[in-house]
Every structure is written in C-alpha cells, then in structure tokens.
Amino acid sequence: MRSASFSTFGKPSDVLKIEDRPLPEPGPGQVRVRMRMSAIHNHDLLTVSGDYGIKPQLPAVAGTEATGVVDAVGEGVTHLQPGQRVAASGQGAWADYYLASAGSAVPLPDAISDEAAAQMISMPLSALALLHYLEAKPGEWIIQNAANGAVGRTLAMFAKRRGVHVVNVVRRESAVEEMRGLGIDHVVSTDSAGWKDEVARFTGGAPIKAAIDGVGGASSGELLSLLGQKGVLLSFGLMSGQPMQLSPSDLIFKETVVKGFWLAKVGPALGPEKIGRLVGEIVESVAKGEIDLPVSGIFDLADVSRAVAAAAEGHRKGKVLIKA
User: Fold this and answer.
1) Residue 3 Rama label (left phi>0; alpha psi -120 to 50; beta)
2) Which residues contact 271 (CB under 8 A, 6 or more apart)?
3) Does residue 64 contact residue 135 with C-beta atoms inside 8 Å?
C-alpha cells in the first residue's frame, strides 16, 4: 500500500516520500481503516519536522486524523463492522490503510461529508476541551488570537452556542470578513490602529476572564495586557516560533496565571465519558450544519509534498486535505 513516510526529521515537503508498505494488521481493540480523506494539521507538520511534543520512532508514516471505511477489525471489536464509514484518529493516517483504536473511531451519518469528517475530531475536540478547561460560563468574556485557524473558528462557534462571549483576534483585515461570513462576531485585526480600543468597545468594559494564545512572541503580551484581574493566559500554540514576551507588571499587578494546554495531556484527564459527550456534540453540530469546517485544497496522496507545502502557507481559508 502507498504511505507518506519519513526516515529523517526535517522540512515536510522535503523529507516525506511515498513508499510501498505492507498492509497493517489490526491488533486487539483496533480497526483497519481504508483511508478516503485525511487532514493536514499543524501538529502533523511539527511531528515530521521533529518539533512536536512527541517524536515517533523512525522511519514513520505521517498523519494523525482521517475518515474512511472500516476494512478489518481486531480481536474484541464488536461495535464496528467492515464496510462502516468512520472518522478515526490514528498514527500513520496518510496512507491507503491505517490502524486506529476502535474506541476512538466515530461512526458517521450520511449528512457529514468526507471533507468535514476528515477534520472533524482533533481541532473541534481541542476547541471544546479548551472551553471546558477554562470553565467559561455564559455571559463571560474570553479572548483568542489565531482566531481564524481551525481551533479558533470552531471555538468561536461552540462558545456562541454556549452564550460565552469571545473576542477573536486575527492578523489581517481580510480575515475579519472571512470570520464574519461564518457567523462569528467580535472579530478584530491587529493590522488596525487602535485595535485594543475596539476590544474594549466589544466588551463594554467587562473583564476578560481568559486568553488563549496560539501565536506566542509579542502577541502573548498583547493578550495579557487585555486580561482582567486574576485572569488566565493559556498557551496553546507557537505560530510565531518566538518565546512568549510578557510584561512583568501585568503578571504581578493583575495576579495573572499562565498555563499550557495540550490535548494529549488534558484529554485523558477528562475521561472517556466526557470525551464521548464532547465528540457527540461535534458530530451533531457538523451534521446539522451548525459548525462549518472549510477546506482550502485537496491533494492526492501521491502529491503529499505539494499538499504539505500548501498547508504550511499562511492566509488559508480552511484545511488542506489528502485523498487516497
């Protein structure tokens, strides 16, 4: 079978190669999925470059989330059957076939397209887990940068359903209209002079409880400066590639708490029952069209180098996907 493999860490478009690998056999509690479409996430690119929190043993097959059809089931799997369409996370998803835990495979209704199903779990689940982690309540304000990214968009949509107010910070004016086109309110671009005054207008002077920082660098300090007393700054990403730049006076006099968030650590603490409820909410919302998961490009698995190069570009309006 074809697989997008890498034997050294490096720039994904340089080190990923299509190789022929044996068909994997599902072990106990696993399913083999015939991949139809897979998302390219930032953490996939960081894993290939060797900059993520987990480094796979090399050589490895890239990709972590896809949708497809169950092809075979391992011992003990009774709730899934061959031929069943699922969305499932699993290592080595950028291949004609990949293995996934049967417990994490989500059966799909016909109302959800492959394009949506391929990106339906990781980023939306991160968004819901962030809201849960922050214990955000109806009527409260939070703020996030990188708001036009996959997590940012879905977080804003889910927060709106819960009555939680979100200030959505982007880095270009064109992204403001893109976000509004998705029904997302309170969007402001740092390209605009006086954008912090716009934030104050949105909130009407109400305190901002928490900030979600997906950028790092100077952006971290900008969010910190807007937090209310005893607010929480949550580090979620490192788009800038720069260390967080924080004002000691904001930290000291506001008694700010700074935390890190990684779903790989937070998810297990939530427990399978809570995760199941969150995933159920995602499936229902996507099926009803209440949560939009846009796509900016679809590439064949054979063109994986072009696909990851496109995914690394800025100013995208949605996910880049790989199809088998």
Assistant:
1) beta
2) none
3) no
Question: In 3-state terms, what secondary structure has residue 282?
Answer: helix
Give the position of tokens 């086109």: 181
pLDDT tens digits, 276-307: 899 999 999 999 988 889 899 999 999 999 99
Token pair for 209 = 């409880």
Global pTM value = 0.88
Number of domains within the chain? 2
- Of 265, 281, 305, which residue constitutes the final position of a domain? 265
Same domain? For 144 and 231 the reply is yes
Tens digit of each residue's pLDDT (9 = 90 or more) over 160-204: 999 999 999 999 988 898 889 888 999 999 988 899 999 999 999
Domain range for 166 is: 123-265
Instruction: Print the SS3 string covering 225-251.
Output: HHCCCCCEEEECCCCCCCCCCCCHHHH
Domain shared by 133 and 249, yes or no: yes
Which residue, 122, 77, 118, 324, is CA-closest to 32? 77
Nearest to 321 by CA among 39, 34, 2: 39
